[in-house]
């Protein structure tokens, strides 16, 4: 019997050169580098995983750095924004931090939540959403403690993602099939929510947009958590019976996945929470390769663009609370295991 998804597993974006990506997500947003590996569909390209110190499913943003290529174009049918959770009382500090670093920052209130909007170095829309549940001790996700952003105001996982499909009704049906419930609407934004403890929000925009083009500055897909590999096969059969485009169940080394694209056009991934990133028994700063790629390490390392993993910016961590006067804040391949 299929289990409703408890929420997001990760969101994957496409970026340009890897160094600005590393600098932005580690230094500006203060995320943790969970793993630096390669794109399993293109082993001569990086795949970067950012998240919380425990690499918790629901806290992870992954990036495919495509290099110095033409930029992508946001549009339908794509995920068109990814949102992170920040603690209540931290938004002023974040606004100042981002402005000091040259970002154009917009602020709005949405579903009674305060939201800051910026873009990453390639133009991908990034949002920070204040949540009382993100205060230390209330959130299941811990902020990074040794980074440039004081942990008291640090990001605590994903909040959600915004989708712009070509058929909002069809995408809504996909979300309801996965177990999310419609909980509200503001203007052309319809909100769905999962029943888990974190990373539960998916918004659908009922808005006409030109077709997007995959490339740096766009979001490739959104992944939701699945209970087990066995359930992935059940999801595979269910979606296939309903006429969705489905992949085989794939071994992504850190988890198993199924990719699904319905009539709404947005690419979804269903991913298990295990085995997790503990299988990467090396420092996140080092290039991790699954055993099957180790024989080609010398070739891979010679072809990847060199990167420097940024460290802290010298600030002392401030655990004094979340007062607003805080001075700083801040289709891979894998082993297919299809049984069909």
TrEMBL record:
Q: Which domain of life is it from?
A: Archaea
Record-linked Gene3D superfamilies: 2,3-Dihydroxybiphenyl 1,2-Dioxygenase, domain 1
Signal peptide as annotated in the record: none
Q: What is this protein called?
A: VOC family protein
The organism that produces this protein has a lineage beginning with: Archaea, Methanobacteriati, Methanobacteriota, Stenosarchaea group, Halobacteria
Q: Which part of the chain is the VOC domain?
A: 7-131, 157-273
Q: Which source organism?
A: Natronosalvus rutilus
UniProt-listed SUPFAM superfamilies:
Glyoxalase/Bleomycin resistance protein/Dihydroxybiphenyl dioxygenase (SSF54593)
Instruction: Map out region (Disordered) in residue numbers.
Output: 299-340
Note the InterPro entries from the entry: Extradiol_RC_dioxygenase, Glyas_Bleomycin-R_OHBP_Dase, Glyas_Fos-R_dOase_dom, VOC_core
Regions of biased composition (Acidic residues) lie at 319-340
């Amino acid at each position: 019997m299929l289990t409703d998804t408890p929420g997001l597993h990760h969101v994957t974006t496409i970026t340009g050169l890897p160094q600005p990506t590393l600098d932005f997500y580690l230094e500006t947003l203060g995320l943790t580098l969970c793993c630096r590996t390669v794109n399993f569909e293109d082993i001569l390209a990086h795949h970067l995983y950012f998240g919380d110190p425990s690499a918790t499913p629901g806290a992870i943003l992954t990036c495919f750095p495509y290099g110095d290529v033409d930029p992508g174009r946001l549009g339908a049918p794509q995920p068109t924004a990814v949102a992170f959770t920040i603690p209540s009382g931290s938004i002023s500090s974040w606004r100042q931090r981002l402005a000091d670093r040259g970002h154009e920052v917009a602020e709005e209130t949405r579903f009674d939540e305060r939201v800051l909007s910026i873009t990453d170095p390639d133009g991908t829309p990034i949002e920070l959403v204040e949540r009382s549940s993100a205060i230390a001790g209330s959130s299941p996700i811990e902020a990074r403690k040794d980074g440039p952003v004081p942990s008291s105001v640090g990001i605590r996982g994903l909040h959600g993602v915004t989708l712009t499909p070509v058929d909002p009704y069809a995408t809504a049906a996909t979300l309801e099939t996965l177990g999310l419930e419609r909980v509200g609407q503001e203007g052309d934004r319809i909100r769905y929510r999962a029943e888990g403890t974190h990373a539960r929000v998916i918004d659908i925009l009922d808005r006409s947009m030109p077709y997007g083009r995959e490339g740096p500055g766009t979001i490739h897909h959104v992944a939701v958590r699945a209970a087990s590999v066995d359930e992935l096969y059940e999801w595979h059969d269910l979606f296939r019976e309903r006429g969705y485009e489905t992949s085989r169940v794939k071994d992504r080394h850190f988890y198993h996945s199924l990719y699904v694209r319905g009539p709404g056009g947005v690419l979804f991934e269903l991913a298990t929470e295990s085995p997790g990133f503990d299988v990467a028994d090396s420092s996140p700063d080092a290039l991790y390769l699954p055993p099957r790629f180790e024989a080609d390490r010398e070739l891979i390392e010679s072809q990847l663009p060199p990167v420097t993993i940024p460290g802290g910016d010298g600030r002392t961590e401030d655990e004094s609370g979340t007062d607003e006067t805080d001075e700083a804040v801040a289709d891979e391949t894998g082993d297919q295991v299809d049984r069909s």
